[in-house]
Amino acid sequence: MPEMPEVDALVAFLRERAVGAVVAEIELASISVLKTFDPPVTAYSGLQVTDVQRHGKFVDLEVDGLHLVIHLAKAGWLRWADHLSDKRLKLGNGPLAMRVRLDAGDGPHVGFDLTEAGTRKGLAVYAVRDPQDVPGVAALGPDPLAEGFELAPLLEGRRMQVKRLLRDQKVVAGIGNAYSDEILHAAKMSPFAIAADLDAEEVERLSAAIDTVLREALAEAHGKPASELKDSKRGRMRVHGRTGEACPVCGDTVREVVFADSSLQYCATCQTGGKPLKDRSTSKFLK
């Protein structure tokens, strides 16, 4: 799933290419991807893209006062093309969900496709007048790299595992499964530590890890074309997606806990005092 660093880099990539261009047409290949009906997507034709912004993991194209807000979900992606096919999209069940044709002054030849792999569809597009009209945007917690961000108040009284807290977009915006694994590894903290029980030193360590991991990821992602962002993300992970490999810090084997629809990776030596989280469903998780 694209997370804040990749989405931020994608927004910068789009801003450079799309701002100033005119929307020629928005074509749908999947009716279900569009979650709104007013304004209709036909209202965007002939309007100019004036900005591209990020809200958490949402991409927001501002088009002369209207907004096209995109959430890529788990398996969605944006594929930019300097030369789009003239062939119009047809409704279907394939990976291609939407096409946005842009005219940068020489005809509607550039733009992007929204695609989604797999059968579980979560890709979502909202045509709105204000990004706050998108429920997911309106509910977002603070951005962890915003000026004045403080982690400690977000932990107070929260009897939830810190891994879950980091992924909760209503608490902290932009962090998902992959970077929460990386942050907790950098902080040397169990994913199942209870947020409200962290002492001052642990809170400071976690806060520093959030800042360091995300800023390093942003620096690595920015400047890369959209087509390279996914592979770039995979390549810089230390524990996430590395089950069975050696931890780059201590050399222990990276372990995994599997849930119904996701998994996490961690290093027992670095994060849980050497004790592996053995039972994936019924054990008492380490704190």
From TrEMBL:
This is Fpg/Nei family DNA glycosylase. Residues 2-84 form the Formamidopyrimidine-DNA glycosylase catalytic domain. Residues 238-272 form the FPG-type domain. Belongs to the FPG family. PANTHER family: FORMAMIDOPYRIMIDINE-DNA GLYCOSYLASE. It catalyses: Hydrolysis of DNA containing ring-opened 7-methylguanine residues, releasing 2,6-diamino-4-hydroxy-5-(N-methyl)formamidopyrimidine. One of its GO terms (molecular function) is 8-oxo-7,8-dihydroguanine DNA N-glycosylase activity. Its cofactor is Zn(2+). SMART domains: Fapy_DNA_glyco, H2TH. GO terms for biological process: base-excision repair. InterPro entries: FPG_cat, FPG_N, H2TH_FPG, Ribosomal_uS13-like_H2TH, Znf_DNA_glyclase/AP_lyase, Znf_FPG/IleRS. Keywords: DNA damage, DNA repair, DNA-binding, Glycosidase, Hydrolase, Lyase, Metal-binding, Multifunctional enzyme, Zinc, Zinc-finger. The keyword Lyase applies. The keyword Metal-binding applies. Pfam families: Fapy_DNA_glyco, H2TH, zf-FPG_IleRS. It comes from the Bacteria.
